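Changelog note: in this version the structure field was regenerated for every chain. One regenerated record is shown below for reference.
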Amino acid sequence: MQTAKPIVRNRYIVRTGRGYSYEELRSAGIDPRLAKRRGLPVDVWRRSKHPENVEQLKSAFKTIDSRKPTKKEKKALKKD
């Protein structure tokens, strides 16, 4: 499943990022390990938090979380 990439700002330049920061994931109420398992891009180097990315995450995670987990994901959840 293709998800939208986050927005990263650097002064006047706005570009698509490599992934969401941990701070954005936490403010959206998503565990970073679960986000990686569900296919959301996570960038460990980013420290910023943009409100538009948090809103984007909330809407994207609703659609991703509503699908049935695969056998591989069920195994991973049992290990935790």
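Spot check on this record: Residues 51-65 form the longest helix (15 residues). Residues 7-79 form one domain.
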